[in-house]
Design a protein that fits this description.
Blueprint (H helix, E strand, L loop, with lengths): L4 H89 L10
Length: 103
């Protein structure tokens, strides 16, 4: 069987073109994977910063909540003291005067 030089050249060209297309596709996939990995790292870093910020805000809310609890305890103790003061003042003032005198 006789194969002409043109047929051999066409087969070599087709094989070379196929190898070039496959390697180009592989190179493109590798670049896309690298880009996706870079974007994932960028977003992960951003989300980590946001999570840290949320944690700091939660800590601040906890501290403010503790302050409110202490303030509520102080107000409650002042209410108890005021009740005692009201009773003492009422005893000092005596009974309220009546409109009609009792005989």
């Amino acid at each position: 069987m006789y194969v002409s030089m043109e047929v051999i050249t066409m087969l070599a060209t087709a094989a070379t073109l196929l190898v070039a297309i496959v390697s180009g596709f592989g190179w493109m996939i590798t670049r896309m994977d690298a880009r996706f990995a870079a974007q994932d790292a960028k977003y992960e870093a951003r989300f980590d910063r946001i999570d840290d910020r949320f944690d700091r805000v939660d800590d601040r809310f906890d501290r403010v909540d503790d302050r409110f609890d202490r303030l509520e305890k102080r107000i409650h103790s002042i209410e108890l003291e005021m009740t005692g003061v009201r009773v003492a003042v009422a005893r000092l003032e005596g009974p309220t005067p009546r409109l009609m005198m009792v005989r």
